[in-house]
Amino acid sequence: MIQTSEYCAAGHPDRTCDCIASHILDRHLEHDRNARVALEVQLKDNFCTVSGEVTSSCRFTDAEIARFCREAVNGIGYTRDYQSLFGSENCICGDDLDVTCHISRQSPDIAQGVDADGWGDQGIFWGLAVDEPSRGFMPKDYWLARKIAHDLCARRFGGLDVKTQVTVEDGLPVECVVAIPIRPECEEAATGTIRNFVQSMLGSDCRVTVNGTGRYVRHGSIGDCGTTGRKLVADFYGGNSRIGGGSPWGKDPTKADVSLNVLARVKALDFMRDRNLYLARCAISCCIGRREIRIAFLDAENRLLEKRTEDVPASHVIESLGLREPRYAEACAKGLFGYEAR
């Protein structure tokens, strides 16, 4: 059996946008735990656009939103010192962001359903759990891709815009593809160091490719436009699961994209343990403004094992999972799943 997954570090422009949106959400939740927030971010060069809807007792000005954007980008590591290493023509600095805001209040048509303790959108959501406690109950290929990306960033073998891809065949890593910015004067030495580091984790028989085009200097939003919600496979379970619903980033927990994605993971974990399965999948669907959810459980071969409906107030799920805490930027940077209590 062959499985492949990829992962994008926070310095990737799409993930940077996710982190910006999550950082702004956290600032709202710090002041108003019942804030309703749905934000999208686009980043190209030094130009950042924040659009969406916010209904909250805390109303930040456009200048404050712009400051939050700069904080988020600097927090990822795109600082003046970092920019001096690669050059302003090759990467951004958070201090230089030119931010435009287009934010209105939540539509009253949607609000009336949320006010009734229903879900803030319709959608389909998938949870996955694998009986591998040492890997956070996550698939091996995904866990390895994420760990390698995080380690490469932490060790500063190269730049921040890191993307990794790991292929596992019959349980053994057979190929890894790494994209990582490297300054031209360091290219030969850094490429060898990165290859050796990855093989120390995956084994000497694993084929490792570093920067497939042979050069990667211009990066982040200078090299590629970033947009929130474009890395759903990297957000969830890699190539091991169907992906439903939308991105969880920049949205408060009344949004089903947040709460029901997390609930699907929790239910998959519980079902895996209760049924003594190696792998369990949970599928959840809902209707906007309603409380009822449909739930199905499947095994590794996608065979239906159980199905049911539940009448669950959105507020109950939100409170039971602790989703009103301002921890979304942290979750966005490190990964949404795989850190649950063992």
Summarize this structure as a short list of keywords or feature phrases:
single chain; 342 residues; alpha+beta; GMP Synthetase, Chain A, domain 3; 3 domains; 4-stranded mixed β-sheet; flat
Describe what this molecule looks like in 3D.
With 342 residues, the protein is α+β, with helices and mostly antiparallel strands. It has three domains: 2-7 and 140-217, GMP Synthetase, Chain A, domain 3; 14-110, GMP Synthetase, Chain A, domain 3; 123-134 and 235-334, GMP Synthetase, Chain A, domain 3, CATH 3.30.300. The chain has ten helices and twelve strands. It has helices at residues 13-31, 62-76, 80-86, 108-115, 140-155, 187-202, 232-235, 256-275, 314-320, 328-334, and strands at residues 2-8, 36-44, 47-55, 98-104, 123-130, 163-169, 172-179, 207-210, 226-227, 279-286, 292-298, 304-311. A four-stranded mixed β-sheet has the order 1-6-7-8. A four-stranded mixed β-sheet has the order 4-3-2-9, covered by helices on one side. α1 crosses α2. The mean pLDDT is 96.
Write the layout of secondary structure elements.
Layout (H helix, E strand, L loop, with lengths): L1 E7 L4 H19 L4 E9 L2 E9 L6 H15 L3 H7 L11 E7 L3 H8 L7 E8 L9 H16 L7 E7 L2 E8 L7 H16 L4 E4 L15 E2 L4 H4 L20 H20 L3 E8 L5 E7 L5 E8 L2 H7 L7 H7 L8
Parallel strand pairs: 3-4, 7-8
Antiparallel strand pairs: 1-6, 2-3, 2-9, 5-10, 6-7, 10-11, 11-12
Helix pairs in contact: 1-2, 1-10
